[in-house]
Design goal:
four-stranded antiparallel beta sheet; 7 strands; PH-domain like; 211 residues
């Protein structure tokens, strides 16, 4: 289910952040049903390879760091890499357990580290970054960062429903008259071009199948 921006409710008409005990949920104000909330999560099939890589890397580096006859500089380097793999493993677990709830009223992040939520009229910063896994930049992922005061929610493009989240947050950034940096503007253009190419390819397949 895709959500769409609402008809310009004023901020005072929105409910507050659920960060305070007993405060209303900005994602589900009174009278809003579960069917109006989209739940987004990271697919397990994408998390499994990352977990496997981190475990294998940790084992290899851990063994190298503990070999008595190994050069000291190699041991320290291996120990440092092992710590990086521990961080990568923990980060992947947190991402796998995280869920993002989105409605036309607000957004909420729930994870093992806690939760963050805010109403869309409170959105104060919108940023989109691209991280390449190859030198030519053809493969990589996008990272969307949303701020509302001190509250921050980060989502990667591997999230199921990322396109819907990007669309509604982008519309709210416009409604809130937020200024975006040049990098974000360039990445938004890149996303638009990619979506145009996907739609064109799908249209060609449909036309080819019907001919």
């Amino acid at each position: 289910m895709a959500v769409s921006p609402k008809e310009h409710l004023e901020p005072e008409e929105m409910t507050g952040s659920p960060s305070a005990p007993g405060a209303p949920d900005p994602v589900k104000p009174v009278g809003v049903g579960d069917s109006e909330v989209q739940t987004m999560a990271y697919p397990a099939k994408l998390m499994a390879p990352d977990l496997a890589k981190s475990v294998v890397g940790l084992l290899i580096c851990g063994v190298m760091a503990l070999i008595p006859d190994m050069l000291e500089i190699i041991q320290w380097t291996a120990a440092g890499l092992a710590l990086l793999f521990v961080f990568y493993f923990a980060r992947t677990i947190i991402r796998f357990q995280s869920k993002i709830f989105v409605s036309e009223y607000g957004i909420r992040l729930s994870s093992i580290r806690g939760g963050t939520a805010f109403a869309w009229p409170e959105l104060s910063k919108f940023r989109l970054r691209y991280f390449s896994t190859k030198r030519d930049g053809n493969k990589g992922w996008f990272e969307l960062t949303l701020h509302a005061g001190d509250a921050k929610i980060v989502a990667e493009s591997t999230l199921d429903g990322f396109d819907d989240l990007l669309e509604i947050s982008r519309d709210w950034a416009k409604d809130n008259q937020l200024l975006v940096d040049d990098v974000t503007r360039t990445n938004l253009m890149r996303m638009d071009e990619a979506q145009t190419l996907v739609k064109a390819a799908a249209s060609e397949r449909i036309q080819g199948g019907s001919s």
